[in-house]
Specification:
Blueprint: H1 28-40, H2 47-56, E1 60-65, E2 80-85, E3 88-93, H3 101-108, H4 119-137, E4 145-151, H5 153-168, E5 175-179, H6 187-192, E6 199-204, E7 225-229, E8 241-243, H7 252-268, H8 280-284, H9 297-303
Parallel strand pairs: 3-4, 4-5, 5-6, 6-7
Antiparallel strand pairs: 1-2, 2-3, 7-8
Helix pairs in contact: 3-4, 4-5
Amino acid sequence: MSFLVELDRNTYPPHALDDFKTTPQFSLPNARAMMWLSQLAYETAHRTKVESIVESWGLTMHAFVSNDPATGLPPHSACVVVAGGHGATFVTFAGSDPGKFNDWVTDFDAVPSPDDVHTGFQKAVATVWPAIETAIRNRPASEQALFLTGHSLGGALAVLAAARSAQELKIDPTVVYTFGSPRTGGPALFQSYGLGDSTFRFVNGTDIVPTVPPAQLGDYRHVGHAIQCKTGGRFDDPETRNIAPEDNKPDFLESVAQSGLANIEALAGLQPFQGLGPGLLKQLAGVVPRLVPDHLPGDYFRALSITV
């Protein structure tokens, strides 16, 4: 990973997982814990840092896979952390890093595979699957609940890893939480994915990434239930939308239009752009359309009522 998506070690609070419960039901406290784990996966260029955070959260590391910090190689590889504690095993994938060419290759390799899955995402999961499979099979009795999560690209990889666990290992994940995840495959994946009722994907405002690949490109589809708040809103707001899996939302053109309206409303009200958390991306967020900063991890933290 690069400085564009990493946080200072002191930003990670020791209490991040204190409210986590091993429930298979939708839970905002669990979603907040999963967002912290999703952010942790962006730190895989610094193993000792990850180990320190994992220990502070009362977890034990079971698997760790990272690309070369300088080159981002090997190609099509994913970055993943598997850790256990609090009654569960957590598999968390890193999302796209704007500073890594390898992630761009993965994201744009979007031709559907023979089994109707985004080819780039499928290859990325395959590179790390042996380590994940071993960790899942060998998880202790005290960590039998299985949670998968990730932000952006990491959310798509979490979905595909969950499907592999269910189909190949005959181990159904307890819950899958994703944040700003793109579509992962076509109708065949949608029909065969048996975890729709235990998969929850968060969409912040007009975030552009959940609109791609476009539904018309190979009939790409989302899986699982979506929770979408308004730009600048929070996921516990009354107006937050709950979207059924078959609706395959959000739509690209709708998100572009809503993003434009959000920018106009902010300017008309002389409102500054929302702070998106620490780091360089916060400084860049105010000069691009809302559908881009709505995707950044910092704004997902804000929408989940987490202060960073």
